[in-house]
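Hi Y.,

Following your request, here is the sequence exactly as I used it, all 274 residues.
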Amino acid sequence: MFGHRPATITRWLSRAGQHAEQVHRHVLRHLHLPHLQLDETRTRLRARSTVLWLWLSCDPLTKLVPVVALGPRTQQTAHAVVHALGALLAPGCVPVVTSDGLRLYYYALTAHFGQWSGTGRQRRWTVAPTLLYGQVPKHYRRRRVVRVTQRVLCGTAGRLRQALLALGLSGRLNTAFIERVNLTVRQSVAGLTRRTWATAQTAPALLLHVAWWRGYYPSIRPHHSLRVALPYPRSREGRRVPQRDRARTPAMAAGLTTHRWTLQAFLAWPCANP
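Below is the corresponding structure, written out as tokens. Let me know if you'd prefer a different format.
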């Protein structure tokens, strides 16, 4: 964008991020997400002494990104991410969860998906028996991945494999989908790009930029792997090849909308002043 002051563009970006966050809260409710992948990526602010982690969650089936958080790599942030996920899910929905080898996810998931049983001194917390959680730890040597292992912390390996196969996946425990989202968000948000001069000065400004990307990614940008074949090729004007597939966005795949939104329609969504 040219012909405007950098401060003006920054103000537009902040307002778009605030609006995208409000649209996200209005639209994403009572979700049925049978599978989720969790991961976090490291980033810095303009002051290089400040190191933050961008926590992401992704649904491999619809490519939806329900929760994004920016904060330190602590147990408190992990609890906040899982709590936000639980608030978006439909009652009784316990997804199959996979992540990297970060142990903080285990304590957050087992603390959220479960219930109290017993009374008095016999009262104890019981983890939901339907919770299936597996990790894919990566072992590095000189900043290179030399070995990848798998471990199941909730449930059994057989149950987790059967659950993934029932969803139409390969059945293999992995975090490939969330790692692709990590690359997408790094290429889309200037403040997250590696070796860049466009680092964010403050964490709230970076979070608003990520919120704007999260609003654009599921509702406006079609995903190549989500397209569906049309029953009959649809002719187009001129000598263009007939359309054989229908493009879909993650919001369309999740059943949140029936059409692809335009940028103007997204910014005009009447939720900024409810």
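The longest strand covers residues 223-234.

Thanks again,
Q.
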